Amino acid sequence: MSFLSGDTQAQQQGYREDNWLRDIFHPKVKILIDNKLDIPLAILCHSENENPGNQVIQPGQTYLSQFHIYGFLILGPTVYCEMRWGPSSLEFTAYDGWQDRNEVKGLYYL
Q1: Rounded to whole angstroms, how far apart are CA atoms 8 and 36?
Q2: What would the pLDDT profile of 33-83 be if each residue is shown by its tens digit?
Q3: CA pair distance 97, 6, nearest whole angstrom
Q4: Any long-range contacts for 54-57 (C-beta under 8 Å, 24+ apart)?
Q5: How many helices (H) and strands (E) does the chain have?
Q6: Is the pTM of this model over 0.90?
Q7: Where do the structural domains in the chain lie, given as residue ranges?
Q8: Of 91, 72, 71, 77, which Cα lies nearest the Cα of 31?
Q9: What own/partner pairs with CB < 8 Å and gap ≥ 24 does 19-23 have?
Q10: Which of 92, 48, 97, 90 is nearest to 75 (CA)?
């Protein structure tokens, strides 16, 4: 199963993209949802700080990456983000690289 980044391509394959993460993380972070089953399939992460291309997070996996996170002024400009699938939610933790590790946690209920 391949996950494509274009909205039109995703719809043609029976997926839709929920872009709720764009306000929190990098604008190119998306969640793909199956149109028929209405369940999440994967997270697409495209970080300009790392190798080009999409990193796919499937259920049961954890992804740790560097992002520039908007809206969290407590965090420094380089922020680490860990996302993983829970049984009924997508959990994410964002934290900076400072020694005291300022941290923001969030939960997206499916």
Answers
A1: 16
A2: 556 665 555 555 444 444 444 555 555 665 555 544 444 434 445 556 666
A3: 32
A4: 54/3, 54/5, 56/3, 57/83, 57/84, 57/85
A5: 1, 8
A6: no
A7: 7-109
A8: 91
A9: 20/108, 21/108, 23/70, 23/71
A10: 97
